[in-house]
Write a structure and sequence with these properties.
The complex is a heterotrimer.
Chain A (H helix, E strand, L loop, with lengths): L8 H9 L6 H20 L2 H17 L10 H20 L23 H5 L3 H12 L2 H12 L4 H8 L3 H27 L1
Chain B lengths: L8 E4 L8 E5 L2 E5 L8 E5 L5 E6 L3 E6 L25 E5 L2 E5 L8 E6 L3 E6 L5 E4 L2 E8 L4 E14 L4 E8 L5 E5 L4 E5 L5 E7 L4 E3 L4 E2 L6 E6 L2 E6 L2 E6 L5 E6 L4 E5 L1
Parallel strand pairs in B: 1-7, 4-8, 4-10, 5-9, 5-11, 10-12, 11-13, 12-13, 13-14, 13-15, 14-16, 15-23, 16-24, 17-23, 18-24
Antiparallel strand pairs in B: 2-3, 3-6, 6-9, 7-8, 17-22, 19-22, 20-21
Chain C lengths: L6 H5 L2 H6 L4 H13 L1 H17 L10 H19 L5 H6 L6 H17 L16 H25 L4 H11 L7 H13 L3 H11 L6 H10 L6 H13 L6 H9 L5 H13 L2
Helix pairs in contact in C: 3-4, 5-8, 7-10, 8-9, 8-10, 9-11, 10-11, 10-12, 11-13, 12-13, 13-15, 14-15
Classes of the chains: A mainly alpha, B mainly beta, C mainly alpha.
Chain lengths: 192, 267, 277
């Protein structure tokens, strides 16, 4: 049990692995929304994302025996989710239109960029931010979505991506810079 | 089973003596549902005549017929032999909470059944009348050929069709995630759903119109128009079939008519 | 005291600084750095504001069907496990073999035809990616299994007593790959033998996904005159027109001339012949 009195994900998955497959429903109820958000952020396709959510739960059912109860369930699940998404992306590669690569050079000098008080003018800025996020290259968007929306720990993301925890943190920083550039570019485009 | 003097032939399904029934009058019998652990189902197979079913506050099925069968069929009393020819009259059987009524196909007979509100229905007739359902909660299937189908005040799901009649269905509540379908060849399809129903739609009419007060989002991803190319002319034809969704989409709901119009109404 | 923090060192700490999860010592060192580095201070403030705003982007929610599909599939999965834990998926699918001879005939026929034509034309957009390396082939295998899962749910729903359930089975059919020949066979069998006209109509629509299959086209041409429902006949004719199936013309001609067939259907066949000229 964890602090809130719930049986932990790891414990539930361990029971699924030992044959109580009906318990997968518990994990579905806990995680399917977050998984959906991950997928929709990655591919902007509702139907495909819903399919992928199903796929993840069935990959977990089929490969339940390979679950290691000492491993973070969330990390394992997102690892599977990531594979499912990569798989789909390969399939759809031909359809993807080229996206401008945004490097992580520093943003325009502060004078040209709106100050924090302008950022504070929220409302449609959030919509703009959403669009900026959508325009980020996949790897940058993914790391932001995982760390910001899906509450994965940096250690878990590192395990998923197969790199050092420190590298993940630096990548988050770079992704944020890229996001800022796109965000301001969109804002200029809008005011122009 | 005891030899019965009833004009209606009543056969128990599995256990011969298990079926609880009472003949209230010449035109009316009451049949109990035998297994409370199973969902209640009423099946009516008519050839000639109408079928009317409505929910009431009771636990048995009350079956009435405007035309009673004129011949009896005895299942025993002849040395274990079965009668092979199919005489007229109505057959009623009950098995594991499913009551099945086979109408008299020699004569036109209108059947009226009162069932407990929570009962699923499978109703069919061919000639000489309409199928009407009112005030039940369950899965309703209704199939008519030459008459209309009218379903009102139903909660659950409905699959209804008529070849030559109108199909009018009004649901007070829709079971989430059930697929539904309504079709008619020559009649109008008129369906009323709760305002918050989520569904993906497929609607088709050849010679009629499609009307709705729902905010139907027409799905651009699926082809709803096709292009005819002939003798160098391009003609874009709006397809007879429209795919779309209401309230963000959900299970599939199909509305099909060829010569009638489609009305999809919000309750 | 360690040496002062460089901008490179700081890069690894921003994320935790923004979410306030830095350890005490790291936080002090980081703040010392941004106090004397204007560029990093700007990043800490400005990117930090964006970081916080990210949380305000509303979450997109999955549709209501996701839950139903999950529970359907879970039930099918459990059923498969319970009935025969050791049996292969193929065996479990075979267990769904219908009891009615009409179904068996229909499926056998379809499988036979498919057997002849398998391999090339039956695989329209499927598996175009060349698997490069082991991971890809594992993924391909996984995808196949998920496809089978859906197929299993669809096939089992198509066998249900209730027309509503069979309609759901048909809507699952939209989600299996167009290369799935068993699904195609089951849909053709539904079109030909399902007792409910609404289910048959839905199945005809689902057949569109299999448009490139010559087996499907042939089966559709042959199905029209077997149908007792004019609505289904008209939908089948329209399907052939949409697919530009010119091979349908001789059969359409027969239909147009067949006095036994509903007049509206015969008219439809005549129009279709014009379109397929």
């Amino acid at each position: 049990m964890n602090a809130t009195g719930q049986v932990t994900d790891n414990a539930v998955m361990a029971r699924v692995a030992s044959g109580e497959v009906a318990k997968m429903a518990v994990l579905f109820e806990r995680h399917h929304r977050a998984l959906y958000r991950y997928f929709i952020s990655m591919n902007r396709n509702r139907e495909l994302s819903e399919d992928l959510v199903q796929d993840v739960f069935f990959r977990m059912l089929r490969y339940r025996a390979s679950y290691d109860a000492n491993q973070s369930f969330t990390a394992w699940m997102y690892q599977i989710a990531r594979n499912a998404n990569v798989d789909q992306a390969q399939k759809r590669k031909a359809e993807v239109v080229g996206i401008d690569e945004f490097d992580d050079r520093r943003a325009e000098p502060a004078s040209a960029a709106p100050g924090p008080e302008e950022i504070a003018a929220k409302g449609q800025n959030i919509a703009l931010l959403k669009r900026a996020l959508e325009r980020l290259p996949d790897d940058k968007r993914e790391i932001l979505v995982l760390s910001r929306f899906n509450d994965l720990k940096y250690e878990e993301i590192a395990a998923m991506l197969g790199c050092e925890t420190g590298t993940v943190k630096v990548r988050v920083f770079r992704a944020m810079r890229a996001l800022e550039r796109v965000y301001f570019a969109l804002q200029k485009e809008k005011s122009a | 089973m005891k030899k019965t003097k009833m004009k209606w032939m009543v056969l128990a399904g599995a256990a011969v003596s298990a079926m609880a029934l009472a003949q209230d009058s010449e035109n009316r019998v009451t049949v109990a549902f035998s297994n409370p652990n199973r969902p209640r189902v009423l099946v009516v197979n008519q050839v000639q005549g109408s079928v009317a079913v409505r929910g009431y506050n009771g636990k048995d099925a009350i079956i009435e017929g405007s035309h009673v069968g004129e011949r009896r069929r005895d299942s025993d009393g002849h040395g274990g032999m079965h009668r092979i020819d199919q005489p007229g009259g109505m057959d009623i059987t009950e098995n594991d909470n499913t009551i099945t009524i086979h109408g008299d196909f020699m004569h036109s007979s209108n059947i009226t059944v009162q069932v407990p509100v929570e009962t699923s229905l499978k109703l069919k007739t061919v000639n000489g009348g309409k199928i009407s359902v009112e005030g039940v909660s369950g899965d309703v299937e209704a199939d008519n050929t030459n008459g209309s189908v009218v379903v009102t005040d139903v909660s659950g799901s409905v699959v209804a069709s008529s070849t030559n009649g109108k199909v009018t269905v009004s649901l007070t509540k829709v079971t989430p995630n059930k697929s539904m379908s309504f079709s008619s060849m020559n009649g109008t399809v008129d369906v009323t759903l709760p305002a918050d129903t989520k569904a993906n739609l497929r609607m088709r009419t050849d010679n009629g119109e499609i009307w709705s007060d729902f905010d139907v989002k027409v799905d651009g991803a699926r082809p709803s128009q096709s292009i005819d190319t002939r003798e160098g002319h391009h003609r874009i034809r709006i397809d007879k079939t429209i795919y779309g969704s209401i309230n963000g989409g959900g299970p599939e709901i199909q509305l099909v008519t060829f010569n009638g119009s489609i009305f999809l109404r919000k309750k | 005291m360690t040496s002062p923090m460089s901008c490179d060192d700081a890069k690894g700490l921003f994320a935790e600084y923004w979410s306030g999860s830095l350890g005490e010592r790291e936080e002090i060192a980081f703040e010392a750095h941004i106090a004397q580095c204007e560029a990093c201070r700007r990043d800490a403030d400005q990117l930090g504001a964006l970081w916080r705003n990210l949380e305000l982007i509303p979450a997109e929610e999955p549709g209501p069907g996701v839950r139903a599909r999950f529970y359907d599939s879970l039930a099918a999965f459990r059923q498969g496990m319970e009935s025969a834990p050791k049996r292969s998926l193929r065996d479990r699918l075979m267990a769904l073999w219908p009891a009615q001879p009409a179904w068996q005939m229909a499926i056998s026929f379809a499988l036979l035809v498919i057997g002849v034509g398998a391999g090339y034309e039956l695989r329209p957009g499927a598996a175009k990616i060349a698997p490069d390396g082991q991971e890809s082939s594992q993924i391909a295998q996984l995808r196949g299994e998920i496809g089978n899962m859906r197929q299993m749910v669809a096939l089992s729903l198509l066998q249900q007593q209730s027309a509503g359930e069979r309609l759901r089975g048909v809507s699952y059919a939209y989600q299996v790959p167009a290369s799935d020949t068993q699904m195609l066979s089951a849909l053709l069998a539904t079109v030909n033998t399902d007792p409910n006209v609404n289910v048959r109509l839905a199945a005809v629509d689902a057949l569109r996904a299999f448009g490139s299959s010559p087996v499907m086209r042939t089966a559709v041409i042959q199905s029209i005159r077997k149908q007792d429902q004019p609505m289904v006949q008209i939908e089948l004719i329209d399907l052939l027109v949409d697919l530009h199936e010119t091979d349908a013309r001789p059969e359409l001609e027969k239909i147009a001339a067949d006095g036994q067939i509903n007049e509206a259907v015969r008219e439809h066949a005549k129009v279709a012949m014009e379109k397929l000229r």
